[in-house]
Amino acid sequence: MTRPIAVGVDGTPESLAALEWAAVEAGRRGTGLRVAHLWEPRRVSGAEDRSGTSEEQERWVRQGVEDSVRGLAERHPGLDVSTHVRRGEAAEGLLETADGAGMLVLGSRGRGILLGFLLGSVGRQVIAEADLPVVLIRADVKGGSEAAGEVVVGQQGDPEDSAETLRFAFETAAAAGAPLRAVRAWSLPPVFTYSPGSLQLLDEAGGPVPFERKALAAALAPWRERFPGVRVTEHVEMGSAGEVLLSLSGGARLMVVGRRAHRAAIGSRLGSVADAVIHHAASPVAVVPPAPTA
After folding, report:
1. What's the 3-state SS for 159-210?
2. Domain count, the chain
3. 103: domain CATH number?
4. How far apart are CA 72 and CA 68, in angstroms?
5. DSSP label of 119
6. Which domain holds residue 80?
7. How far apart are CA 170 and CA 156, in angstroms?
8. Residue 144 above 60 pLDDT?
9. Do 34 and 77 belong to one domain?
10. What burial class does residue 215 get, using C-beta atoms within 10 Å of its C-beta: 0-12 exposed, 13-18 middle, 19+ buried?
């Protein structure tokens, strides 16, 4: 991947962690780094207006972004960094700034009572509407050279259903020199839900487990060929996909899941598996959109 990596910053610890993660990843992949900050002018009511003019606020904002990226050149020599400070609504502006990038990296607000990501409305909107992978980083997640463990990717459906998710996972593993664990979870539905054709396929495969292993192997085959240096573990387990993936997140350097977003009556929904992993994973999470339809 030669397209730049985009990252949103706002001066918070989690966004600075996202900035560092993105810088390391850009160095590994040999890409540029596009640092984005979105802001809107504010006024403080009262006898004395301490908020400054919009021009003064913009100057302060730009100074803050420059402060955030100042140390990158020393920590990552040769990294091509560009900054993009613009006014506007955060989600829309981040998506516009990330146009043409290979991924967008965002900071998450940490872990809550349920030990998961606290994802605000901006992050949720960006993930649901983005046409590129979105990576979520917490402030307490180690990144860069300190990161260890496998890249864990969830595979569902037919090979074409998970092609973009597997592509991103293999690219990430190859860039980091990391092993990859491909996970396919399955559940045994009630007998009456099987069609005669499904039963025949299961019989021919020797049962549900061999059938699922064969399906996973078929989905991985073209990516194994394209990335022969990536060591792959095939993981087939009975259970809900969200629960199986979460059980592996503690030792992962990155969890990669596909997005099956669709518009709901109110807001956007991401799909149950992506939603579960986003909110409860113990590692950074990448959410990959499906390939665009013709």
Report:
1. HHHHHHHHHHHHHHHHHHCCCEEEEEEECCCCHHHCCHHHHHHHHHHCCHHH
2. 2
3. 3.40.50.620
4. 8
5. -
6. 1-42+52-140
7. 16
8. no
9. yes
10. buried
